[in-house]
Write a structure and sequence with these properties.
- By secondary structure, this protein is of the alpha+beta class.
- It has three helices and four strands, in the order βαββαβα.
- A four-stranded antiparallel beta sheet has the order 2-3-1-4.
- Strand 2 and strand 3 form a beta hairpin.
- It starts with 8 loop residues before the first strand and ends in a 25-residue tail after the last helix.
- It comes from Streptomyces lutosisoli.
- This is Glyoxalase.
Length: 105
């Protein structure tokens, strides 16, 4: 398991029109979540999961990128909530397998 921390951002990419958003998605190919939505002003937006560098590269004329959350930090927080061990095993269960059985002192 790698100890390198990575950053993935959940961002909202908003384009002035559908064609601009299509072109951006075709060129950049970000990992999108969900379907595009049309705003009241005629703009189109979609959520994407990208690195901070990719988020900066998505911004161009007619396109804005808004960071919603740090998805990697949210994932790490959820992983910290997960317990260790087998909560369904009886407390006096004896380990099985090819390992050596040793008694804790």
């Amino acid at each position: 398991m790698s100890t390198t921390r990575y950053e993935i951002l959940r961002v909202r990419v908003t384009a002035k029109d559908a064609e601009t958003l299509r072109t951006l998605l075709r060129e950049a190919r970000p990992d999108v979540g969900g379907r595009p939505r049309q705003g009241d002003d005629g703009s189109f937006s979609i959520e994407a999961y990208v690195s901070p560098e990719q988020a900066a590269a998505l911004e161009r004329e007619g396109v804005s990128v808004t960071t919603i959350e740090d998805a990697a930090a949210t994932g790490r927080a959820r992983q910290a909530e997960v317990g260790e061990g087998d909560r369904f095993a009886p407390e006096d269960a004896v380990p099985r397998g090819l390992a050596l059985k040793v008694k804790d002192t």
